[in-house]
Design brief:
By secondary structure, the chain is α+β, with helices and mostly antiparallel strands. The protein has three domains: 78 residues, no CATH class; 100 residues, no CATH class; 108 residues, no CATH class. Helices cover 54% and strands 13% of the residues. The chain is rod-shaped.
Length: 319
Amino acid sequence: MADVSAAGPGASGGAPAGRLDELMLAMDVVDTLRHQEGLVAKELSQDARDSELKERLRKLYESQGLEVSDRILEEGIRALKESRFAYEPPRQSFALTLAKAWVNRGKVARVVLALAVLGAGVWGWQSWRTSSEQAATEAARVEITETLPKSLEAAAAAVLAEARDARAQRVAADRIADARAALARGDVAATRTAVAAIDALRAELTRTYVLRIVSRPGESSAVWRIPDVNSSARNHYLLVEAVTPGGEVLQLPVTSEEDGKTTAVAMWGVRVSEATFNRVRRDKEADGIVNDNIVGEKPRGSLDVAYAMPVLGGAITAW
C-alpha cells in the first residue's frame, strides 16, 4: 500500500502538492480495493455496493489513523471502475516488437550470434561434405580413366617382357585379360587387384634360384614314407631348399601330396624314384656331404624349375 501519511488533515504545501497527495491517496484507495476482496459484497446492488464499499474503506483508513474524505473515497471507487490506475499492456504491433527487441538487444544479439554460428557450422559441414564427395568422385573418375589404364598397360608390358616360355606367357596373358575386363566394367577394386596380380607374376618371373639338397650335419638329406593307402609301398623324397644366387634361402608355397595343404616353407621334400634316392644316399655316406646336390634350377622368365635330376612330381612339407 502506498504511503498516504501526507494526505491527512494539516498537511502542508501549496495547491500542486495537495493535488498530488490527493491523487496518490486515490491510487492507494484503488490498490486497497483490488487487494481487499472482502470489502466488496457481490450480492449488493450497484448503489448499495458503492455505499458499503465507501463505508468499509473509511473504517479501514480510520483503523490506520487516517482520515479520508468522501470525495477521495468516491474518486478512488470511480477510478477503479474506469481502470484509470490499472495497467493495460499495449497492443501487439511491429513497432512494439522492435521496441522489445531493442530492450532485450543483449539476449537477442546472443541468440542471433548463436544461430549465425550454428548456421555457419552447418553450411561449412555441408560445403565440406559436398566438396569431399566431389573430390572423391573426381578421384575415382581420374583413377578409372587415367591412372589405372596407365598402370595396367605398364604392368602388362613389363610382365610380357619377362615371360620367356609358353606357360609363363599364357599365365601373363590370362592375368592381363582379367585386368582389362575389370577395367572395362568400371570395377576399380577388381582392376587394382588384377594389376597387383600382374606385378606379382612379373616379380616371380624375375626371381631365380636353385633347388639344393640339404646337406648339413645333423640334418637328413632324404626320407622315405609309407603311404596310407598302401602299407607295403614306400615313397622316397629328397629334402631341398630354394637358394638364390646371393645365398638367400626362400620360403615358397608348396602343396603336400599327403594332405593337399599348401604352406610357405623354407624346406620340403621332392618325390623321386628309389634309384635316385639310393644314389644320393650313397653320395652322402661316402664323405658325409652330398656333392651332387642340385636337384634343379628355376631360370628367369619361367615359372617352373628345370630339374637336373629325375623327379616324380610329388612333394611333402612335413616328415
